[in-house]
Design goal:
40% of the residues lie in helices and 19% in strands. The chain has 385 residues and is an alpha/beta fold. It has a 7-stranded mixed β-sheet with strand order 7-6-8-9-10-14-15, sandwiched between helices. It has a 5-stranded parallel β-sheet with strand order 2-1-3-4-5, sandwiched between helices. Helix 5 links the parallel strand 3 and strand 4.
Length: 385
């Protein structure tokens, strides 16, 4: 049977829009294939999220998206007849609770994979335990270097911060002809690592870093940091801050009279958009893998369907979570019915057509995806062609 035609017919009849097909197309696009193995009636996917505690907003966004993706798959009869079910465990935003949750899920042999690690700390804690238990652990959210290095069962479905930073700097050199930089970063492990990565790449390309200035994560002393930057002769200011910090930093830079172009990576925003402080970011450039204003038909269909179901716009985390469920569904479609075959099939993923772009896992189990470059023009977010 022509599987591509079969799934096309079923999806169109059941859902009426093309988005749900993307999870199957990667396995059919290169050549016709016949899958003879019969799957179980259902498969369980473990999900470890911070539903309470400091990071509960991340957990809520992720849970809705994962439920959305699983419901969508099951509404068309599952994956080759196999229904997917999720077991959610709250890690309470604590690393030790994430470890406990992974251990509990791993003891259930019917759980074929675990989605978790909604930030770097939780991903490291969960990844260490998952690899010990030899169960696939895939994070759609954590960007720190080294997470997939925890072992062969650990995957990341997100472009890490180092790649984001490197690609941004290269873009600013090649397209914007920026050569003189300053770096302003949060004084924590993330900020220090990203600042070092950017400074190193600027130097490799023959550019100059006029200064590297940190600020405390509670934003104390920000005026002093900005005053130092104002006296530097630079063309671009790289600010790898968090989305919660961006409005305040942009406003203070603007009010200080510093009109230099700001640049950032995907830590700036959750959905490619900027909701606050955009009036102070004219000309800014930043990276993302998901842009809610995209004209891509799959993204538009997803955004509309998500809004209909939840009454709100999906963010980048939601898109990455939906893609993560669909990647696991693709593995099941190819015959991955247990932990080992899921691991092997994930490693074979090439150019999977996700909401966050064509996705391939490299030999280190890092997701390779195209990055989008966005800018602020006349107070509006625009994709740079």
């Amino acid at each position: 049977m022509n599987l591509k035609k079969c799934f096309l017919k079923n999806a169109l009849l059941t859902m009426g829009y093309a988005l749900v097909l993307t999870m199957f197309l990667a396995g059919c696009q290169a050549k016709e294939q016949t899958v003879t193995a019969v799957g179980p009636s259902e498969l369980l996917i473990g999900v470890v999220l911070p539903e309470t505690g400091q990071y509960d907003m991340l957990g809520k966004s992720a849970k809705q998206a994962i439920e959305f993706a699983i419901d969508e798959i099951n509404q068309i009869g599952g994956v080759r007849g196999t229904v997917l079910k999720a077991i959610f465990i709250d890690d309470q935003s604590q690393a030790n609770k994430a470890t406990e949750a992974i251990n509990n899920l791993a003891e259930r042999n019917e759980v074929v994979a675990i989605i978790g690690g909604m930030n770097d700390e939780l991903a490291f804690a969960g990844g260490i335990q998952a690899n010990r238990k030899k169960v696939v652990f895939i994070t759609p959210a954590a960007g720190a270097i080294g997470i997939p290095d925890l072992g062969p069962y650990i995957f990341r479905n997100k472009v890490n911060y180092s790649v984001n930073t490197t690609k941004l700097i290269e873009y600013l050199f090649q397209i914007e002809s920026k050569r003189m930089f300053a770096i302003m970063y949060p004084f924590n492990e993330y900020g220090v690592n990203v600042a070092e990565t950017s400074a190193r790449r600027i130097g490799e390309l023959g550019g100059v870093v006029a200064g590297k200035e940190s600020y405390s994560v509670d934003m104390d002393g920000l005026n002093s940091t900005i005053s130092k930057i104002r006296n530097m002769n630079i063309q671009a200011l790289f600010v790898p801050c968090y989305s919660s910090e961006l409005p305040g930093i942009a406003q203070q830079l603007y009010q200080s009279g510093n009109k230099v172009m700001m640049a950032g990576i995907n830590s700036w925003t959750q959905d490619g958009s900027i909701s606050r402080g955009i009036e102070f970011l004219e000309g800014a450039i930043y990276t993302t893998s998901f842009y809610v204003g995209s004209h891509n038909q799959n993204v538009m269909g997803f955004v509309n369907k998500y809004k209909q179901k939840y009454g709100k716009t999906p963010d980048s985390l939601a898109a990455h979570c939906v893609d993560t469920v669909r990647l696991l569904a693709q593995c099941i479609y190819a015959g991955g019915f247990n932990r080992e075959t899921i691991k092997d099939e994930l490693q074979r993923i090439k150019n999977f057509p996700g909401l966050t772009g064509l996705t391939t896992f490299d030999s280190n189990r890092e997701a390779e995806k195209p990055l989008l470059f966005l800018t602020v023009t006349s107070g509006k977010i625009e994709k740079i062609q």
